[in-house]
Amino acid sequence: MTATDGRPAFMGALPQEFVWGVATSAYQIEGAVGADGRAPSIWDAFCRVPGAVAAGESGEHACDHYHRWPEDLDLIAGLGAGAYRFSVAWPRVVPGGDGRVNRRGLDFYRRLVDGLRERGITPFATLYHWDLPQALEDRGGWRVRDTAERFADYAATVHEALDGVPYWITLNEPYCSSITGYAEGRHAPGAREGHGALAAAHHLLVGHGLATARLRERARKGERIGVTLNMSPAVPASPSPEDTAAARRMDLMVNRQFTEPLLAAAYPGDMAEVYGEISDFSFRRPGDLGLISAPLDFLGVNYYYPIHAAAAPYDQPDPALRTAYDIGVRTVPPAGPPVSGLGWRVEPRGLYDTLTGLAARHPGLPPVFITENGYGGGDELDDTGRISYLDQHLAATADAVADGVDVRGYFCWSLIDNFEWARGYAARFGLVHVDYATQVRTPKAAYHWYRDVIGAGS
Ligand code: IFM
Question: How far apart are CA 346 and CA 337, in angstroms?
Answer without folding.
Answer: 8
